[in-house]
Amino acid sequence: MQAEENNYNTGDSISALVYRLLRGPEVLVASPETIRKMAANGEPLRQVPDIPTEQAIDKLFEQRKAEAKEIADSLLPAPIPEAVYLYLYDQIRACALFGLFGPAITYCGLLVEYALKACTYIVESNGNPNFSGAEWDEFETLTFGQMIPRAQKAGLIDEGMVKQFRGFKNDIRNTHSHFNIKKIAQDVVIRNVSIRNVETGETEVRDVPGIENPVFQVFAKEAADKNYFPQIFHISDTFTQHLICMTARLVPEQETANGV
């Protein structure tokens, strides 16, 4: 079946995307009716600038470059030169360099889940795993929650770490993978928000909970992701290194066989 050409034009151009990425927390939150009243009253309304795509991208990369330089040296390297670990660490660090801390946190969850599966598989196979075989196919069907007791049974984690892994799964991995935006934004307060009454013209400045409405939830999530990413990445790296080290201890030959 031939795909039809998409002729929809929502006005959501690359220029508009760049504007949203660079504007920061400066945005008008109002109903269409309120916006019409503000326009009728001569209130100043900022229009989204429409600039050429190439110019918009240059502007975005210029800002991202400056921010990337500030955090580059703090981004943790892969603990071993194994292809999948390198890929996952690269994805986390690349997302962070481009300011995409939400996706970076999601990849942190994937990293820990993969480490649980790969290390448990290596121990269960006594150091001779076949990652292209049916046995590994079974592991790919298992959930993060199912892997925790299996990793414990394999001797990779103790009871104390079981609680830590479950906490990570419930509070970080699941929350971000399922995009529970309200839960992520619940502890964020947006400071000094100007509340304008279009009827009286009065403006009140107050703090607003991040869960106030979907628009504030988006800004709150961005702030929370950026703030918590370094800690979450550190926890993910600690879990991963622990699993790799325990695997090398339980199956010593893996040190030369698979770089673990």
Tally of contiguous helical segments: 11
Structural class: mainly alpha
Q: How large is the share of residues in beta strands?
A: 5-15%
Radius of gyration: 24 Å
Termini Cα gap: 47 Å
Tally of domains:
2
Shape: elongated
Mean pLDDT level: 85
| Low-pLDDT segments | 1-9, 255-260
Bin the helical content.
55-70%
Order of helices and strands: HHHHHHHHHEEHH
Within the largest sheet, what's the order of strands?
Answer: 1-2
Largest sheet: 2 strands, antiparallel
Question: Short summary of the structure?
Answer:
This protein is mostly helical. It is built from 11 helices and 2 strands; from the N terminus they run H-H-H-H-H-H-H-H-H-E-E-H-H.
Task: Write up what this structure looks like.
The protein is mostly helical and 260 residues long. It contains eleven helices and two strands. The chain is 62% helix and 6% strand. The chain has a two-stranded antiparallel sheet with strand order 1-2. The longest helix is centred in the C-terminal third of the chain and has 37 residues, at 214-250. Residues 1-9 and 255-260 have low confidence and may be disordered. It has helices at 14-23, 32-40, 53-71, 83-97, 101-124, 134-141, 144-153, 159-177, 181-185, 214-250, 254-257; strands at 189-196, 203-209. Helix 1 packs parallel to helix 3, helix 5 runs parallel beside helix 7 (144-153) and helix 5 (101-124) packs parallel to helix 10 (214-250). The protein starts with 13 loop residues before the first helix and ends with a helix.
